[in-house]
Design brief:
Length: about 625
């Protein structure tokens, strides 16, 4: 435990070394520094896990130094090591390390190799600050650093207008959420007089606080989670974030940033337990986001954007779980999703490596025999995310659906189940369009080839984790082996299930499992019929569904709506302020004052002309004025 600070220090040192001196290093040295810093942090994380499991104390706070001390207000840089933060640092450093290794091969030809690894290390450091923080202020520092790093990495190829625009969009949209987040932190300090987790949570058990206050605090914090974890209505930045390098997409979507909102709610669950209305909102927003993003992914033809919408949808699942009070289920899916989504994104990166950076699936096809290792691991990721047993996605997704229906939310369970079918369809659609059928690319210009070992080994390890990760939580058909639940139990021991008195669901646990598998198979079957067997709807039916296709392909016109309702009015207001208010009114006022002073100065300057006759005239006028005043007095 005494060395947990190295989990933070190592990536930070790597970022500084490559950032300041990387241009003088060879690419081999830059890659070694970038990868080893995160790899060593992962090793220390495993050591921390072993000490935590083997020790008697399941929560340790390590104070590094005093940060702020003003009057009665004091904030220390303290690290909180408990099962929840330990799970997160394992995910961040473990999956992050594999992404760093993959990047060695993927970014090998980039001229800004050292800058890339510097920012990737900094991104990892920022997320580790966020999850290890023991107070809300340090949490906010990590929260904002993650946003900054996402801006830098999404816009890494800043000479591309699309990348620069995507980076700005991500940064601005997240500032909207962060505004609510910091207001929530201000309110916490106003109510509790402290920003320390342990003090705030202990006060909840001693004093009684208004439900309205708790609801306000948690809703404001949730606004921040909506922005950072890309939920309705602030999800629009995440698909555009695909403009960054593919390993960056994997890091953002799998191990960092977008999971911050889910972690924050799990960490502050003591507050959310006192705000049942907020939990309902969290569950509803999660369910709506899950189905909306999944439906958009049905018709998207960019392999990375399909995976991006998949991330938005799966994050909705996580919020759905936390919204019904099952924080452990949400964290389990966060962990399993990290394995699966990192595998799929890096797999798509391997496809792009083989296809000269092509991302349009309509220009792929027939790659199964060309890149067999990439095909195999990508298939594992697709089946795992689709919820096919015994892969990890089956266990975590089924657990969430089970917790939702057992909480009495049958409608939300139905939404989650239907979303599972859509997930299986669009993922298998992407798989079939990419690897099966006849080649649709120009075979004279593009010659697909398998990725080098430095890129394939992270894929193989992630595939193994996606296969064996279900062992973290197996609870099917009466058999129960749940080490992750037991590990996290001390963190969530005070959870009171707000829907505990709801009646039993209509279906048994075994029936729910069968439903879950059946809908996944239905989605896979439809994708197979359409994209392998070539099944086509009749012209009449296609005309009926054309409006639906148009809506989905245009992403429900959300970007256009935001453009007309928010962007255009703000641009008009900006132009008015810049061209009329600023130049005409403000500048006119200032220039008018200047002209008035100039005219006044000219008048008084004429009084000091230096001519004796002028002075004599003024003396005469002054004398006459005094005489007239005295006579008329």
């Amino acid at each position: 435990m005494n060395f947990v600070w190295l989990v933070l220090a190592l990536p930070l040192v790597g970022a500084l070394l490559n950032g300041l001196c990387g241009r003088y290093f060879s690419k081999r040295v830059v890659g070694l520094i970038g990868c080893s810093s995160v790899g060593l942090a992962f090793a220390i994380s495993i050591w921390t896990l072993l000490e935590l499991v083997g020790g008697s104390d399941r929560s340790v706070i390590q104070t590094l130094f005093n940060w702020i001390a003003v009057g009665n207000f004091s904030v220390d840089v303290r690290l909180l090591v408990d099962p929840l933060s330990t799970l997160m640092i394992l995910v961040v450093t473990g999956v992050g390390f594999l992404i760093h290794v993959f990047s060695v091969g993927y970014m090998n030809h980039d001229p800004n190799y050292h800058r890339y690894f510097s920012w990737l290390n900094l991104f990892t450091f920022s997320m580790l600050v966020l999850v290890l923080a023991s107070n809300f202020l340090l949490l906010f520092v990590g929260w904002e650093l993650v946003g900054l790093c996402s801006y830098l990495l999404i816009g890494f190829w800043f000479t591309r207008p699309s990348a620069a625009a995507a980076a700005s969009k991500a940064f601005i949209v997240n500032r909207i959420g962060d505004f609510g987040f910091i207001l929530g932190i201000f309110l916490i300090f106003a109510i509790f007089g402290t920003l320390d987790y342990s003090t705030v949570f202990s006060l909840l058990g001693i004093q009684t606080y208004s439900t309205t206050i708790m609801t306000t605090i948690t809703l404001l914090l949730f606004v921040g989670a909506i922005g950072k974890s890309a939920q309705i209505p602030l999800y629009v930045w995440l698909p555009d974030a695909m403009e960054g390098p593919t390993p960056v997409s994997a890091l953002i979507h799998a191990a960092t940033m977008v999971t911050a909102g889910v972690y924050m709610i799990a960490r502050t669950h003591a507050l959310y337990q006192l705000a049942p209305f907020t939990l309902e909102i969290v569950a509803i927003i999660g369910a709506l986001t899950a189905i909306l993003a999944a439906s958009i992914a049905l018709v998207n033809n960019d392999i990375k954007r399909v995976l991006a919408y998949s991330t938005v949808s799966q994050l909705g699942y996580m919020f759905l779980a936390t919204g019904v009070g099952s924080y452990t289920a949400g964290m389990f899916h966060l962990t399993s999703h990290a394995f699966m989504k990192a595998l799929l994104f890096l797999g798509s990166g391997s496809v792009m490596h083989a296809m000269a950076d092509e991302t349009d699936m309509r220009k792929m096809g027939g790659l199964r025999s060309k890149i067999p290792w990439t095909w195999a691991v990508f298939l594992v990721g697709v089946l795992a995310m689709s919820g096919i047993p015994p892969l990890v996605g089956f266990f975590s997704k089924d657990l969430i659906l089970e917790k939702v229906i057992f909480s009495g939310n049958t409608l939300l369970w139905g939404v989650g189940l239907f979303t599972a079918m859509l997930t299986a369809f669009y993922l298998l659609r992407a798989y079939f369009m990419t690897f099966h059928g006849k080649p649709r690319y120009d075979e004279k210009k593009i010659h697909p080839h398998e990725s080098p070992p430095v890129m394939l080994w992270p894929l193989r390890i992630l595939a193994l984790l996606s296969i064996a990760g279900g062992a973290l939580w197996v609870a099917v058909f009466g058999f129960s082996f749940t080490p992750l639940d037991n590990f996290l139990a001390p963190v969530f021991k005070d959870v009171v299930h707000v829907n505990a008195e709801q009646p039993e669901p209509l279906f048994s646990e075994s029936t729910l499992i069968l439903f879950s598998v059946l809908v996944a198979l239905v989605g896979i079957g439809i994708a197979y019929l359409v994209y392998v067997r070539g099944f086509r709807l009749s012209e009449g039916v296609r005309k009926i569904f054309h409006p639906v296709y148009l809506i989905l392909s245009r992403k429900y016109f959300v970007d256009e709506l935001y453009n007309w309702v928010i962007v255009k009015p703000l641009q008009l207001l900006s132009r008015f302020l810049a061209s009329i208010f600023d130049l005409t009114i403000l500048d006119g006022l200032i220039n008018g004052i200047g002209r008035l002073i100039g005219w006044t100065g000219g008048v008084f300057r004429s009084l000091q002309a230096g001519y004796i006759r002028s002075y004599a005239a003024w003396v005469l006028l002054g004398t006459l004025g005094i005489l007239i005043y005295l006579l008329l007095r």
